[in-house]
Amino acid sequence: MYVLTIDQRGSxxxxxxxxxxxxxxxxxxxxxxxxxxxERSVGDEIQGVVEGAGEVVxxxxxxxxxxxxxxxxxxxxxxxxxxxxxxxxSGPAFVAARAAVDRAKAAAAHVPLAVAGGVGRKxxxxxxxxxxxxxxxxxxxxxxxRLEELDRLDxxxxxxxxxxxxxxxxVLRLIGRLVLDRTPAQWKVVDMLRSxxxxxxxxxxTQKIAAQNLGITEQSVSRAVLRSGWQEEWAARPAAEMLxxxxxxxxxxTDDGGPARxxxxxxxxxxxxxxxxxxxxx
Length: 282
Known about the structure:
The protein has about 280 residues and is an alpha+beta fold. It is built from 9 helices and 7 strands. Helices cover about 50% and strands about 15% of the residues.
């Protein structure tokens, strides 16, 4: 599960942009089956719970587009049942989202996005832990060796989870740089390509149709596509989605009372990478 906390940049010297972003996300969520519900949480901040990694990528990049938002992504469990309002939600993913948005603010000179993982219960390492330096619940050196081995595996699991979140963050920031650097003219072309295909809205279109609708030449559309990095963005989105899914899988593996699965054993909710990659074709 994922929690997104999105906070307005420079809100003290700017108008309240929360209502506009909420309206945009409401429209976006109607097209994304697991995008969840977003609402104002406090001040100039919004929050929502999202089930799918692909939807997280879509929402995060949309928020980055204007350059007016910090984006924090928390990965982990949320307390169930989910309340009607995200403001009333709780669980490790909410805590992680708060930590992530705070880190995004510290990275404001770069792409203001961060990913953090929240672990539910502490991984069990034996029937009883050490008490005052003495081992309890384990008899003899074999029991101590087992505790030490579980401690070591617990440490490896923490590293795996942290690396998965860091890798997802790195790829999202790379894509985010393409999104942030686009000019208004390039966005007109990109938005048109995403909205039409042979006259049908909601799918990616061809350069020829986009050029006709915009009243510009196909060469101009081609240049805008090349300089905007649009095809590179859509080629990289499945990687970001898969890394988020991996982080979620590793973190969820700690909530059954045992150590998390390692990357080679993690069961991913495989993104439709092939379909998403072809969305960048024109």
